[in-house]
Amino acid sequence: MPEGDTIYRTATTLRRWLAGRQVTAARTTAPAVGLGTLVGDTVVDVKPRAKHLLIRFESGRILHTHMRMTGSWHVYTSGDPWHRPPSQARIVLETGERLAVCFSAPVIELLRPGGDRLHPVLAALGPDVLVEPLDVDEVRERVLRQPGSNEIGDVLLDQRVASGIGNIYRCEALFLGGIHPRRSLGEIETDAVVQAVETAARLMKTNLGPTSPHRGDSRHRWVYDRAGRPCARCGTTIRSGRVGSQARTAYWCPRCQPPP
After folding, report:
1. Annotated catalytic residue 51
2. Domain boundaries, the chain
3. What is the pTM of this model?
4. One of 9, 15, 49, 51 is an active-site residue; which one?
5. Domain 136-252 classified CATH 3.30.390.30?
6. How crowded is residue 36: how many other Cβ atoms within 10 Å of its Cβ?
7. Is 248 noted as a catalytic residue in this protein?
8. Cα–Cα distance between 152 and 183 in angstroms, integer?
9. Which pLDDT tens digits describe the chain residue by residue (260 residues)?
């Protein structure tokens, strides 16, 4: 699943490509989403909202997409070959010679003006960790509302606590904090949980540029995707396992992050 930093970069590219331009054609394979009504409308802005992407139009309408595990946005000039098969295109937005194509996104919605404020998922999101300054007090309040039995590895992925963190930065932040992902909130000081959120945010912000040592290469990560390899800090073999209600694979060093 794309993390918040990936969606941030995608929004930056789409904004540069589409903002201020009038839609000349629009189509989608999503049932009951009438994108044809956007023809003649003008793209005003493209904004990331944690792992969600919102394209805003002059009419006030909002095109909401969520990539989950499979989706991605690409941009092309008319006539360019596409990097993925046309059969995977779920949205095609044309603004003259420019095309924005969304492949394989499972969530596509065209919201009415102000619909993002009423949306049951968007309205419930916790503070976006890429928005400066991070609302640390709100994060702390949301952590305190969680049952003490919840595992911290699950809490860091709960977008209602703090939004934008995905599995890579969950694992990296917990390693740097010396916290095993299966520790329950009842075993950890609230400040340590908040600090893990802040660490994830800091790591993600370093990953916003066009190139980053954290992206696509496990050699530059502490634990993520490094199961069976030695810990760079202590040499202990890194382990992995399913953690939390989402059963996502977490990675940890059993010496640097003592188990519960």
Report:
1. yes
2. 4-124, 136-252
3. 0.87
4. 51
5. no
6. 11
7. yes
8. 6
9. 567 788 999 999 999 999 999 999 999 999 889 999 999 999 999 999 988 999 999 999 999 999 887 899 999 999 999 999 999 999 999 999 999 999 999 999 999 999 999 999 999 999 999 999 999 999 999 999 999 999 999 999 999 999 999 999 999 999 999 999 999 999 999 999 999 999 999 999 988 865 444 444 455 799 999 999 999 999 999 999 999 888 899 999 999 999 98
- H helical segments located in 148-258: 152-155, 167-177, 190-205
C-alpha span between 142 and 138 (Å, rounded): 6
Residue 215 has, within 13 A of its CA and on its CB side, a CA count of 15
Active-site position among 61, 98, 248, 255: 248
In one-letter notation, the amino acid at residue 172 is E
Domain 4-124: CATH superfamily, name plus number: MutM-like, N-terminal (3.20.190.10)
